[in-house]
């Protein structure tokens, strides 16, 4: 009997990246903090705003226009209409739609921010946003159109609009009008109160949700790249002493030391070894801990940037109901996420470059120390017409080049918008989308190099010049054999590459964590 998972609670408790990932994958139930004191604290912000309206106070985005129109007063008789106008005129997103996993992460990030109680929204809004997550009602959100300051306005307008019964959602696998889904679930669409559309839209939820997913993918990719490297050390008859613990004590970057330790464990480096063929392997093997270690060492501060943003109030203005103050600032600016994602995509692209170089060694008879050309398993009488992994190596080179091209930092391409009111913007959402694309490409490189490494290990065994595989690698090799047969006669490998990518996406293989 399985133990029920503890629900993720939205409220005063901070969330971790792993919580967002579990929620995005529908692996865990959720709840909204509902004790009386918490509900009262949330309600107090909306009540304070209402009291200011009664006194005809000036509040940005409530009794004024938006952006450069903040100098335009909105008469009280039009204040109720302003939220609908905000999400309506921002309904101009283009590009692909965010997938279901990313959309859930976005909803989670927005809900967690609003749960701080300083955004001036009602409890009812939090409840409906949580109900969207619980019932898997997913707004269809175009991924393009945000400059990442003044928040993810355009993509988040699709959240505000669907909560109000407008636009479209994905529900039970079908694309449907939001109004129809509200009726089916017995809900009345929300009529957003003053500040509520702004609170929903004027934040960093899209870039932050994507950043959580990117972080989790990069963390697994780090472990997978280390395992692939170990397989390639075996396939290329590399020198395992490159990962000696005493060697890394002399340059003690913690992540670099961790990768070296994983390699020692995978290669059973403390076990007796045969005499070495050479003192030094090429850099893509010898320096793998140094390359992968940079990503390993960066994950802690990347986590800090992402989780602080996730657990922050990041809209404007901030409503301090306790002190009865409206604080106008710029917390919608996504600079930390922009920098984290610009950094992550560079770190990950370096992993692609490392694995691409390892694959280039595997297929080349000048450097692979006795493996067949292009890793073909064909017998001698058919070797001349078989080409093994030749095209896979070409594809890997293309994917790597594209990943490297996409490392141009988005954050330095700030554009002045809103009649120069938003004259310095973060580009955080573009950076996060770039990071996801670089991860996709690098996972393709990893899939190709993993299958090639596994083929190389098999070829060594066939030739009878391989030492027994260490336990971790033997288990991995056996598991891979269940889905990926050795390439003897040429076959199209697209289907197997795609299956390998599915395994990577599901984090199928238990690795080093």
Notes on the protein architecture:
It catalyses: L-tyrosine = (E)-4-coumarate + NH4(+). It is an enzyme of class 4 (lyase). Pfam families: Lyase_aromatic. InterPro entries: Aromatic_Lyase (IPR001106), Fumarase/histidase_N (IPR024083), L-Aspartase-like (IPR008948), Phe/His_NH3-lyase_AS (IPR022313). It comes from Pseudomonas lactis. With about 525 residues, the chain is mainly α. It folds into 2 domains: about 10-200, Fumarase/aspartase (N-terminal domain) (Fumarase C, Chain B, domain 1); about 210-505, Fumarase/aspartase (Central domain) (Fumarase C, Chain A, domain 2, Up-down Bundle). About 55% of the residues lie in helices and about 5% in strands. The chain is built from 19 helices and 9 strands. It has helices at about 15-25, 35-55, 75-80, 80-90, 100-115, 125-135, 155-165, 180-185, 195-200, 205-235, 245-250, 255-265, 285, 290-310, 335-365, 390-405, 430-465, 470-485, 495-505, and strands spanning about 10, 30, 95, 140, 140-145, 170, 175, 320, 325. The strands form 4 sheets. A 3-stranded antiparallel beta sheet has the order 4-6-7. Strand 1 (about 10), helix 1 (about 15-25) and strand 2 (about 30) form a beta-alpha-beta unit. Helix 1 (about 15-25) packs across helix 10 and helix 17 packs across helix 19 (about 495-505). The longest helix is centred in the C-terminal third of the chain and has 36 residues, at about 430-465. It starts with 7 loop residues before the first strand and ends in an 8-residue tail after the last helix. The model has no long low-confidence stretch (mean pLDDT about 90).
């Amino acid at each position: 009997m399985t133990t029920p998972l503890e629900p993720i609670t939205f409220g005063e408790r901070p969330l971790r990246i792993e919580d967002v990932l579990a929620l995005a994958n529908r692996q865990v139930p959720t709840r909204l903090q509902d004790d009386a004191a918490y509900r009262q604290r949330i309600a107090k912000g909306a009540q304070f705003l209402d009291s200011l309206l009664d006194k005809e106070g000036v509040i940005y985005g409530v009794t004024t226009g938006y952006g450069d129109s903040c100098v335009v007063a909105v008469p009280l008789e039009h204040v109720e209409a302003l939220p609908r106008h905000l999400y309506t005129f921002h309904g101009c997103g283009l590009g692909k739609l965010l997938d279901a996993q990313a959309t859930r992460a976005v909803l989670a990030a927005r809900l967690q921010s609003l749960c701080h109680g300083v955004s001036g929204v009602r409890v009812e809004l939090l409840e409906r946003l949580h109900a969207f997550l619980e019932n898997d009602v997913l707004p269809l959100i175009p991924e393009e159109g945000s400059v990442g300051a003044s928040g993810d306005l355009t993509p988040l307008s699709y959240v505000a609009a669907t909560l109000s019964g407008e636009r479209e959602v994905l529900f039970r696998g079908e694309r449907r009008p939001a109004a129809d889904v509200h009726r089916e679930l017995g809900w009345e669409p929300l009529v957003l109160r003053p500040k509520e559309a702004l609170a929903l839209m004027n934040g960093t939820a899209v870039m932050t949700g994507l950043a959580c997913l990117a972080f989790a993918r990069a963390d697994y990719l780090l472990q997978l790249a280390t395992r692939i490297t170990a397989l390639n050390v075996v396939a290329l008859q590399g020198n395992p002493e490159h990962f000696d613990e005493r060697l890394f004590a002399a340059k003690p970057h913690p992540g670099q030391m961790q990768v070296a330790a994983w390699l020692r464990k995978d290669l059973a480096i403390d076990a007796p070894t045969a005499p070495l063929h050479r003192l030094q392997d090429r850099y893509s093997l010898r320096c793998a801990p140094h390359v992968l270690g940079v990503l390993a060492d960066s994950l802690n501060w990347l986590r800090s940037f992402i989780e602080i943003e996730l657990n922050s109030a990041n809209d404007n203005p901030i409503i301090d109901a306790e002190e009865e103050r409206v604080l106008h600032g710029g917390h919608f600016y996504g600079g930390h996420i922009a920098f984290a994602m610009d950094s992550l995509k560079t770190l990950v692209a370096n992993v692609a470059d490392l694995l691409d170089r390892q694959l280039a060694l595997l297929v080349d008879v000048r450097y692979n120390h006795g493996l067949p050309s292009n890793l073909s398993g064909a017998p001698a009488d058919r070797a001349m017409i078989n080409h093994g992994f030749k095209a896979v190596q070409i594809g890997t080179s293309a994917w790597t080049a594209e990943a490297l091209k996409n490392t141009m930092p988005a954050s330095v391409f700030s554009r002045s918008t809103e009649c120069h009111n938003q004259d310095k913007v973060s580009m955080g959402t573009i950076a996060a989308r770039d990071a996801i694309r670089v991860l996709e490409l690098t996972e393709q490189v990893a899939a190709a190099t993993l299958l090639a490494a596994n083929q190389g290990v098999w070829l060594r065994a066939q030739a009878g010049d391989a030492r027994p595989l260490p336990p971790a690698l033997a288990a991995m090799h056996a598991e891979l054999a269940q889905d990926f047969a050795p390439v003897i006669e040429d076959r199209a490998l697209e289907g197997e590459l795609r299956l390998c990518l599915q395994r990577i996406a599901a984090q199928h293989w238990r690795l080093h964590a």
